[in-house]
Specification:
The chain is mostly helical. It contains 19 helices and no strands.
């Protein structure tokens, strides 16, 4: 197949996709409160804010932004029905509490360890003599340990924990198969610990994102499959007719990952150029078809719940889902620009990268219109700050990624720190920040305990926001200058190294702030786990139940 044919076919496909997008607008798919979008709310809940991480004062301000006068009204005739629905929700939360807590504890441990090794790796880039006494602390190993702790430690553990907590709430039933998830968690972490140990002693498969030896990777595949089983069992026992879009995203992600990882790790199958192609097929798909769907599912659930209104257009959310599933599969090929791979394969990857603008635009427009008139709620809601910022970073990282795939941009940015900056914009500024917000919402429900020090949430937010900002800007500028220096035939290669030094120091500064933020987060998490602070009984409320009218106390659950 020649390049002209590929371009023609992809052009036709992209125009068709754009036509579907325009058709959705013409069919009034921006209706404010379609029934499907209201599935996540119980009777009378629309109009009530919900943020377990907020203080009573913050919650009062949050409610005032959403409704005039600062009070939400529940129809007295619906009170009994609402009591039953909230009792069922409490049962659903209780069924997931232990499983979710286990996953999130693992996530916190891996986050701290990954941050430590990432900071060590960053320092080594501008201070090569730092910690050179031991082989396992050399840059090649610490950087690889950092990547695997993030990719298979912090990110999946946080994603699994949040997904398992949301699942019964979205299906309005209790969790089924939780023991399979716990067994899967044990196998996964055992495999990860063994894999990290092999990497530390210099044994790995030599492919980025796939360094863990395939013999050990079997444990991750089995663990991931077991963790996905509760989705099947709980779906079979659901009490809702309609599956909310978050279920679509979570279901796809939980089954895509084991398949992706299994194909990527099959021994004796991938060789040479084909192996490089598979490597970046996996590398990009694990980001776009696992981490991204889980984070989007979280945004689609937590953002409407916090502001107390359904998403603006439910049908746009479905367009975003199917466009992501359809367009993302071949995006990774643009990392092979200039390599010995078929020209049409690179072209197809570039075009599909640009076509990703469709699902990103669908998501971004939908979230903006949902928040329209409610952006002031971010001032009061600690959780919403993380969720909205993460959602905005998804838009930014996706648009940057689409244009970075272009050959004219890739010529400069390829093999530079610019690509590292972009990777952190997606996996950290988008995914991780959304997970932070989700955990702040989830943990009070899991523990029936308030966050002991809400101010620490604000400290965490500003540390990681400032940190990733410095990190991203420093590496973006330094990486671009590095690329220009490498393309200049009159300059020696070492000039491209020298020009990056101030920006690598900026990277370390940003990474230090992010690590400090993670330590604040971890300490706060441990305080809650040890039951330090305010006690709760039943659903996590932001006010004392006795001090509220009955309708308001119910609405806070």
């Amino acid at each position: 197949m020649d390049t002209v044919t590929v371009l023609l076919l992809t052009f036709i496909l992209s125009v068709t996709g754009l036509g579907v997008f325009i058709w959705s607008l013409r069919r009034n798919m921006f209706d404010e409160n379609p029934e499907a979008a209201s599935v996540i709310f119980s009777t009378g809940e629309i109009g009530h804010v919900e943020d377990p991480s907020a203080t009573p004062e913050q919650r009062a301000g949050l409610q005032q932004v959403v409704t005039e006068g600062g009070k939400a009204v529940v129809d007295a005739s619906l009170a009994d029905r609402l009591k039953k629905e909230l009792a069922d929700r409490l049962g659903a939360d209780q069924s997931t509490a232990y499983v979710t807590f286990t996953f999130l504890c693992c996530a916190i441990v891996w986050l701290v360890l990954a941050s430590t090794f990432g900071l060590i790796s960053s320092i080594k880039l501008h201070n090569p003599e730092f910690l050179t006494e031991y082989a396992w602390l050399t840059f090649g190993r610490t950087r690889t340990l950092h990547l695997n702790m993030v990719a298979y430690g912090w990110c999946p553990m946080a994603a699994f924990g949040v997904a398992i907590w949301m699942l019964p709430r979205l299906l309005k039933t209790r969790l089924y198969g939780g023991r399979f998830a716990l067994l899967g968690c044990m196998l996964w972490n055992a495999g990860l610990i063994a894999g990290l140990g092999s990497i530390a002693v210099g044994i790995n498969d030599g492919l980025e994102w796939l360094e863990i030896p395939w013999q050990i990777s079997i444990l991750l595949v089995l663990g991931g499959a077991l963790i996905a089983l509760p989705l099947v069992f709980t779906l079979r026992n659901r009490k809702v007719e309609h599956l909310y879009v978050s279920i679509w995203y979570m279901g796809a992600a939980l089954f895509w990952f084991p398949v992706l990882y299994l194909v990527g790790k099959l021994p004796g199958v991938h060789f040479g150029v084909e192996q490089a192609t598979m490597n970046w097929w996996f590398g990009h798909n694990v980001l776009g078809l696992y981490y991204t769907p889980i984070a989007l599912a979280s945004v689609y659930y937590f953002l409407p719940k916090i502001v107390g209104r359904p998403i603006q257009s439910y049908n746009l959310s479905l367009i975003g889902f199917w466009a992501l599933a359809f367009f993302y599969g071949q995006v990774g090929g643009h990392h092979l620009v200039g390599g010995p791979v078929p020209h049409w394969l690179i072209t197809l990857s570039i075009v599909q990268s640009m076509m990703m603008i469709i699902p990103v635009l669908a998501f971004s427009v939908n979230q903006h219109l949902t928040m329209r008139g409610h952006f002031k709620t971010m001032y009061y809601s600690p959780t919403l700050r993380f969720i909205v910022l993460g959602a905005m970073m998804y838009t930014l990282s996706s648009f940057e990624g689409s244009f970075e795939a272009l050959r004219s941009v890739s010529t400069v940015a390829h093999f530079t720190h610019f690509t590292v900056a972009h990777a952190h914009l997606g996996l950290y500024a988008f995914f991780s920040i959304v997970m932070f917000g989700a955990i702040y919402f989830v943990m009070p429900r899991v523990m029936s305990w308030e966050w002991p020090h809400p101010r620490l949430i604000s400290v965490h937010f500003w540390l990681v926001t400032l940190g990733i900002g410095i990190y991203f800007v420093s590496l973006s500028i330094g990486g671009w200058l590095q690329g220009l220096a490498m393309l200049d035939a009159t300059k020696p290669f070492m000039e491209s190294v020298r020009v990056t030094m101030p920006y690598l120091e900026g990277r370390t500064l940003g990474g230090s702030l992010m690590t400090l933020g993670h330590l604040v987060f971890a300490v706060h998490f441990v305080m809650m786990a040890l039951r330090y602070g305010t006690s709760r009984v039943g659903p996590a409320l932001l006010h004392n139940r006795k001090s509220l009218p009955e309708s308001q106390a119910i609405a806070g659950a």
